[in-house]
């Protein structure tokens, strides 16, 4: 059963198309990943689906409600964890959550119990009455995830929820979310920089580049579609000669490396290297989501890039506050 | 959305303002002491010149005290509203705007929160006034509190409208130069309204705070330039216009 449907959803800023005629159908209970380079239109799409941003053209329905005409019902159906922290640092975790519960019409009698419940879910129950400004970035993120779950939304949007968190915390958070999704039949739409994460978690993935969906399928199918092996070459590569080889299906350059999609690399590697030029470095691996990403966007998804962006944002925030 | 949900949302926004108010004690202290400095130093100094004008019957410090009640409301209410720019900056506004309540409900909640903030400070000053020998009666205290509340509604709305348009806190200086000080200085808080030169008289009559100060003076020291009912009606009219404008501003606000 579909819970989100977009028809030619578009957002333009002057001449720039941030989101360009996206058609998506997301099913109930699904964990759906939106992947794409920075500035591809992922956040813009989430903002339109949550009714915070008006589409320039096209429509979307969320939980059966039109994002333009029934925005209040749309907002009641969803929970959101923003890419940047959006809690009030001079209030305690409890106060931030209480505010949220009141805004989302959680019954007064159950507010305190609910707050304890979601905070223990993210291991913050003991810090309940501490001001949010005393929290680390990871703790604040966990608190905001708990906050998003407080009103038990039908649909949960997570924009880079684990950006800048250490791997352990990341695993932790995903475990929570997965268990919860199964328990309350929640649909999850997330964006992430971490490819392994997306591969492990998502039922389906849409790769967005320059505002368009360039690929959409389950991670396994996307990887299977690439087929063969990936050969990574570094050095002075004679690309023209390499392209002529019958067993080379595709070649992409990224970060001073060439990534070749090669049929049966074990047999063909010798032939490849014979014509490839002066090679300093060779590696062969089975394709994964990173290769899928590179194939469709022409860019490597660098996790550090996301991390760095996240860190810079955090540093900026701290400086601005002073 | 039904009325109970709306009230809960309004309570939520008020609850936050109140918590922040309790936490920011330094702001409260400065908001109460600034008018007291004016009262003692400026009021004492000018008062020593002698009877400034016949309409300043007797004590100049008593004459300007109502003006300082209004001053506290002007400063706190406007800055409280404009402080919304901070909510934008820390992205807290996103959390509020993505919640189900309508923009109109959010505006009302923030307005009541801002009024609470401004009024608590003005009321503290009012009670200090009792000990300064301002001739208060229980009736005049009550009426002053009501007039200050009516004034605060419109002023917080101005602040919220500014906050909804502003993109960064850099414009804060402009607010105090071009809105707060003109509103205060033109309100007749420091001087009587009757014998002003024509241009200044016109300007004071445009300033809505003038009517609130006149009304306060009427109830506290029994001196006024215009009838009380007229003063109060003008301030209520000012509130209605600004609340409508504020609701409009919130509905068009983008992130």
Task: Describe this protein's structure.
- The complex is a heterodimer of chains A (322) and B (255).
- With 322 residues, chain A is of the alpha/beta class.
- Chain A has twelve helices and 14 strands.
- Chain A has a six-stranded mixed β-sheet, with helices on both faces. A four-stranded antiparallel β-sheet of chain A has the order 2-1-4-5, with helices on one face.
- In chain A, strand 1 (2-13) and strand 2 form a beta hairpin.
- In chain A, helix 3 runs parallel beside helix 5 (137-149), helix 4 (111-121) packs across helix 5 and helix 8 packs across helix 11.
- The longest helix of chain A has 19 residues, at 303-321.
- Chain A starts with a strand and ends with a helix.
- Chain B has one domain (3-48, 55-252).
- In chain B, helix 3 (60-82) runs parallel beside helix 7, helix 3 packs across helix 10 and helix 10 (208-221) runs antiparallel to helix 11.
- Chain B is globular.
- The interface between A and B is medium-sized, with 31 and 29 residues.
Please provide a brief summary of the model:
Chain A has 322 residues and is an alpha/beta fold. Chain A is built from 12 helices and 14 strands. Chain A folds into 2 domains: 221 residues, Rossmann fold (3-Layer(aba) Sandwich); 59 residues, Alpha-Beta Plaits.
* CATH topology annotation of the largest domain in chain A: Rossmann fold
Count the helices of chain A. How many?
A: 12
DSSP strand count of chain B: 0
Largest sheet of chain B: none
Number of domains of chain A: 2
Oligomer: heterodimer
Unreliable spans of chain B are none
One letter per element, helices H and strands E, the order of chain A comes to EEEHEEHEHHHEHEHEEHEHEEHEHH
Number of helices of chain B: 11
Shape of chain A: elongated
Q: Taking all residues together, what is the mean pLDDT of chain B?
A: 89
Order of helices and strands of chain B: HHHHHHHHHHH
The chain-level structural class of chain A is alpha/beta
The CATH homologous superfamily of the largest domain in chain A corresponds to: P-loop containing nucleotide triphosphate hydrolases
Runs of chain A in which pLDDT lies below 50 for 5 or more consecutive residues are none
Rg of chain A, Cα atoms, Å: 22 Å
Strand content of chain A: 25-35%
